[in-house]
Specification:
Elements lengths: L49 H13 L4 H5 L3
Length: about 70
């Protein structure tokens, strides 16, 4: 009831025209080696474990490793 225009998982990630907030689905930041994860990263807190798994995949790719060879299928 108090989440008008937002989300209990970290705020609203859509712009007024319905576009996804730029950068929100990205896990890599402008700081080398710093990645985002948790309930306020894509796809949000209602999908248990998925933000961490997605970030782990981004880290592995950044390190030049194939996530599928380390993590298995998605």
């Amino acid at each position: 009831m108090h989440n008008l225009g937002g989300s209990c998982h970290g705020g609203e990630f859509l712009l007024s025209d319905g576009q996804v907030l730029p950068g929100w689905p990205d896990y890599m930041t402008s700081v080398d080696g710093l990645f985002l994860t948790g309930s306020t990263s894509h796809p949000g807190g209602s999908v248990s474990g998925r933000p961490g798994r997605n970030t782990a995949r981004a880290v592995l790719q950044h390190l030049g490793l194939d996530p599928a060879s380390v993590m298995g299928p998605t």
